[in-house]
Amino acid sequence: MLVDVFQRLSAFDDIHNYRYIGFGSIYFSDFLLFHRTLGFTKMLSIENTRTAEEQDRIKLNRPYGFIQTEFGHSSTILSKTEFDDDRTIGWLDYDSKFSKSVIDDLSTFLSKAKSGSMYLASYNIQDIAPPQGVTEGRTPEERLEIAIGEGNKIYLPSNWRTLLNGKNRGTLFAAILKNKADDILMRRNGPLEEQSKLNIYPIINILYRDNAQMATFGFVIYSNREKELCDNANFPSLPFAKSTVDDYFEITLPNLTFREIRHLDQNYRSQTKQPWLPLPQSDADKYWKLYRYFPHFVETEL
Amino acid sequence: MVQEDPLVVHASPTKEFFITILIRDIKLIDAICDLIDNAVDGARRLCPTAKLNDLFIEIDASKESLIISDNCGGIEVSVARDYAFRFGRTKETPNSPHSIGRFGVGMKRAFFKIGSKIDIESIAETSRFKMNIDVNKWISPDNKDKDGREQWDFSFAECQENITNPVKNRQTIVSITSLHPTISAEFSAPTFKNKLIAAIESAHSKAIESGLRIRVGETDLSLRQISLLNSDSIKPQFTTTLYQKEKTVTVRIYAGISDQVLSDCGWYVFCNDRLILQADRSQLTGWDSENGDIEIPRAHYQFARFRGYVFFDSDDAGELPWNTMKNGVDEESSIYQATRLHMINAMRPIIDFLNSVDNELQADTSPLKTIVDNAKPIQLKDVEQRQTFLGPTASQIQQTAPKEGRISYTTANEKLARAKELLNVTSNKAVGEATFYYFLRANGDE
Ligand SMILES: Nc1ncnc2c1ncn2[C@@H]1O[C@H](COP(=O)(O)OP(=O)(O)OP(=O)(O)O)[C@@H](O)[C@H]1O
Ligand SMILES: [Mg+2]
Hints:
The complex is a heterodimer. By secondary structure, chain A is α/β, with parallel strands linked by helices. Helix content of chain A is 35%, strand content 19%. Chain B is elongated. Chain B is an alpha+beta fold. In chain B, the strands form three sheets. An eight-stranded mixed β-sheet of chain B has the order 5-4-3-6-2-1-7-8. Chain A binds chain B through residues 52, 55, 71-76, 79-82, 84, 99-101, 104-105, 107-108, 111-112, 131, 149-151, 184, 186-193, and chain B through 243-245, 249, 289-294, 334-335, 337-338, 340-342, 344-346, 348-349, 352, 387-389, 394, 398.
């Protein structure tokens, strides 16, 4: 899915020239995928580890020599990284719950990223939990405040109290990030001349289940000067694109066997009905909504 | 009396109100600095590119008076008549490039703040004048113009135009007498002079560096060099950003580490080379905002080494983020808001580094401290452009870590004596070494 989004960024620039920043961990799976499909060669992996041993292990697992590795807290590394010349895709895939470091990384990224760049963050929305884990006896309101930090309360949407449970939390966190992004851009734009002023265009707001309920939120950054390029990319035509924070695209995977999948694929033309297959129509619908991306998600289970 | 229009509703300020509001918040030292700012502007107008070597400003504060004299070009009668003594600048007010003067209020505010009799004498290129202001008379209800309206204007005591005065004769002398009692008391306080010196030395280090002589009483002010630590493994950030709208503003940011002095730690902000904010460690400069597990925290002692310097420069002083008292930033300024984002980014890696230096205190070895101790101060003008602060790499840290470690412990003297006997050695040190190697050999090493 993300590959489809990134491909559209070629409206701004040859996609090979993009720089990718991610949390490669020791598997570098996103790095492998994006290099193979999109040809990225400017790639930076951030890993918060200080011991020489772990650092060596990460370097050892680096699939390509051009992947740069930086060790330290993502906020520190992002604030050290030069952004000036490259359009950058940053996919900050936190395997943790939503917290103030997500917000702070966003503000660092956005205080530097140039037009044509893209920001994405994935985080766990299973629960609202402060990173320190002091949850006992606290209300969700209190936990939220600890999780995002006192200073970030101003970015809460006005209806935040109604968004504290279930999938609503996806909307809540996306809204916080969106508000923060608007605030940073307002500050950054202040002294810039009209054509250089930057805007964001939200396109990704996806909910999915890993082991826990997860969310990915993302937007493209474009300047007034490059608005046309952004329009040319035609992001809204992506089937899963969502341009507001209260609307999300949900990935629900039907339980299908290999054989069933093959059957469905072969009968692509009759997408709507499969009387010959003993499957509920809803499962088939779910499949069709995602079939192009399907193998990628089940890969590990096969 | 002139016949009044019955539809007119009066809204003009009373002079008392005006003065009270004007001087309400300004501190005495800041008011004096305003007078010095004007002379520094004069010096830069006189020698825009050259050194300020033959120029001086002298400040003399006593129980009775404050006298500030300078030879920085003087005030032309035409400027004095139409602009200099007005409250606030007009569109036509001549603007000298890269000036500190901006609002058109500093000098008058300083007068009112300090005393009630002000005598100004000035000799400029083509004119000279003398002027005596008696504030009490000026405020008095009897002070009316020929139409019977409240008189706001001042008048020259003497003035001469269309003459030629050589550079060396040009000067301005401001003397303020009939000091307000609190001011007079401050001037006699033993610490006052030092405070004033410190304030001017920091505010105008750039002018002093350019050769301008500033003297407070008998003391010549000295240049306070700004420096940051630098070595192969530690380098300060130095970035330049240009903002171009109608006017250009250049923003330079330097950030790094220096001596471990908490009172000096923080951000320093300069506008047109005039320091307006010193050692700030508040939200205003991006401290205090939490950030995951590393925070840009309230200043703790471990961050005492942090220093950041921001220089805003523009030919048009109106573009710069200063407040009217020149002792703080205009937080709402869009240039400042944008720069603050850069300041936060600049600070993070340094805070992170200082945290690691601090964590090392609990460890057995302290390579980072050694690296910091080995770095040498360099002046800002010698700092090279760098996008971010450079801290030591893991391998530099490893190389610095000492190859040997020390073990020490104490034991009872009888036992120690017995060990010496058994080992056939005489010193405690030898016992330590012999027993250590004995242990290793017993385990099959060495
Ligand atoms: N010592 C001096 N030498 C030369 N010119 C002077 C001197 N003192 C005052 N002036 C003139 O008087 C003017 C008014 O000074 P004042 O400090 O009131 O306002 P300003 O400097 O224009 O603005 P600001 O309120 O920002 O200081 C100055 O602009 C300058 O032209
Ligand atoms: Mg002034």
